[in-house]
Design brief:
mainly alpha, 5 helices, 2 strands, two-stranded antiparallel sheet, 2 domains
Length: 132
Amino acid sequence: MRIGELARRSGVSERSLRYYETQGLLRAERTPGGQRQYGEWAVDRVVRVQALYAAGLNSKKIARLLPCMRDADGGPSEKATPLLVTELTTERDRINRMITDLVRSREVLDEAITTASAGMETSAASAVPALR
């Protein structure tokens, strides 16, 4: 598939796909006319790259990680190293801390919303004149 098709199917801009290629995150074959040509595998690769970026990893770390991920056929990669596993464990722990912090922040906001809502109900009730 061409770059436009990959962009459409993955939801990532053509510009980002070209960037991924320069960073070693994605590779394309070239047609005799020089156009990029991708296999079906590229959609899954781009989705993985996007997920790793969303997790806070940078392109250098993603480039080191991608060869260690399972291939489309489910076979294990032979390029994983103990150092990379340690780095990835550290990243996972960082993400878990972020999740804990976000849950705590949500709880604080929930409490503030509940308190503010109760205050609004009290104010609204006292603003209504009593019927005689």
